[in-house]
Design goal:
Elements (H helix, E strand, L loop, with lengths): L5 H8 L2 H13 L1 H10 L5 E5 L2 H16 L5 E4 H6 L12 E6 L5 H12 L3 E6 L5 H5 L2 E4 L12 H22 L1 H25 L2 H8 L5 E6 L3 H16 L2 E5 L16 E6 L5 H13 L3 E6 L10 E4 L14 H14 L23
Parallel strand pairs: 1-2, 1-3, 3-4, 4-5, 6-7, 6-8, 8-9, 9-10
Helix pairs in contact: 1-13, 2-8, 2-9, 4-8, 4-11, 8-9, 9-13, 10-13, 11-13
Bound molecules: 1-O-phosphono-beta-D-fructopyranose.
1-O-phosphono-beta-D-fructopyranose (F1P) binds next to helix 4.
Length: 363
């Protein structure tokens, strides 16, 4: 019998191939994607998915607003199905960019159908072209190297995130997207090194001790900008794999209430960026001062930070292209905590690989 979590661990550690595969998949469709974006350049643009892919769409929408210079909204697919009129002006055809590993999640398929029924179009990103969602889409991007055996999404999420970044780079164009494009171009050379670096970072005794600590009852994952979607995804990993209460927050929101839960039973993980790094670090230091355990994931270790642990990405990438590097350390932290709690990350409680519903009238 396989060791508990062996599929999840393998998938986390082999994600480099899915980053690279995602870049190739978008490159192969670049003209068609650019065409579709241009055809719908004045239409409302929605990004969507369910669970992990919804969080991915939050991160991608932030990047698209910033680089594509067009307003767009991320929403769970179920909202498109249940409340389309609360999202879209009556009668306006929209473009939907939707993510789904399985391509079979009922709400995702129904959301795509609803957008097409209003005269809109669907660009679907998934891991298998031969699935309902990708087949019905006007355009599909298949990240085959992201396919997984595990229920919990890790490698697939990373691959679909890179695909989303590459699509945003196309929307931005060469001038506006210059740093994003140059960062993405460096990913293939960096991918395996970055994942190995994450493995070594999470094997560090101090960090391992922290994530395995049974006295930790709640986890906060803080991220701003595109990293808020990653914080949501990391919190979901801790819930799914470790059955620990985990809450994602925009970094400075931590002071507006959740701070009252900062004590020795809380672990606060900050995904720090470049812009606002001082202000973000100050939140972690404050939580630490109140007795919470604090960990930062950051490009370069800041001098003199009072924290319990720190993961330095040391990627040299521009901030816009760096997001995928935060994933492996976070996924491995959740994995290690699950194993320490006697749980099997390959068999998360109550979960199935994708949700199939009878949406009846709603679809
Ligand atoms: C999405 C999903 C997520 C859930 C879990 C398993 O499926 O069901 O909702 O968080 O990680 O996958 P999919 O639409 O990406 O196949």
């Amino acid at each position: 019998m396989d060791a508990p979590g062996s599929s999840t661990r393998d998938e986390i550690l082999s994600q480099a191939a899915s980053w690279i595969g995602a870049l190739e998949a978008v490159r192969a469709q670049a003209d068609a994607i650019t065409d579709l974006l241009r055809r719908f350049s004045h239409a409302p643009l929605l990004l969507s998915g369910c669970g992990s892919p919804y969080y991915l769409s939050r991160s991608a929408a932030t990047l698209l607003r910033q680089y594509g210079q067009r307003f767009c909204l991320a929403t769970p697919a179920s909202e498109i199905v249940l409340h389309p009129d609360a999202l879209l002006p009556a009668g306006s055809p929209a473009l939907l960019l939707i993510f789904s590993r399985s391509g079979e999640t009922s709400e995702a398929v129904a959301a795509a159908r609803a957008v097409q029924a209003r005269g809109g179009a669907v660009l679907a990103v998934g891991c298998d072209a031969n699935t309902t969602l990708l087949r019905m889409a006007d355009l599909a991007v298949e990240v085959a190297a992201g396919r997984e055996r595990s229920v919990v999404q890790t490698r697939s999420f990373a691959g679909m995130l890179v695909a989303a970044q590459a699509i945003v780079a196309l929307a931005a164009g060469e001038q506006r997207g210059a740093d994003l494009l140059s960062g993405l171009a460096s990913l293939p050379d960096l991918a395996a090194v970055a994942v190995e670096r994450a493995r070594v970072a999470v094997a560090d005794a101090q960090l391992l001790h922290l994530v395995r600590d049974a006295s930790i009852e709640r986890i906060f994952v803080l991220g701003s900008g595109t990293r808020y979607g990653l914080a949501c995804e990391a919190a979901l990993k801790f819930k799914e794999m470790t059955l620990t209460n985990a809450e994602p927050l925009h970094v400075l929101e931590f002071r507006h209430g959740p701070m009252s839960l900062a004590d020795s039973r809380a672990l606060v993980i900050g995904l720090l960026g470049d812009a606002g790094a001082q202000a973000e670090l100050a939140v972690l230091q404050e939580a630490h001062g109140l007795g919470a355990r604090a960990v930062a994931l950051v490009e370069r270790a800041p001098a003199g930070a009072q924290l319990d642990a720190l993961v330095a990405l040391d990627s040299g990438l521009p901030e816009a292209a760096r997001d995928v590097l935060y994933l492996a350390p976070l996924q491995l932290m959740a994995f290690e905590r699950a194993i320490a709690r006697g749980l099997d990350p390959d068999s998360p409680r109550h979960l199935v690989p994708f949700v199939r519903l009878d949406l009846g009238q709603a679809s």
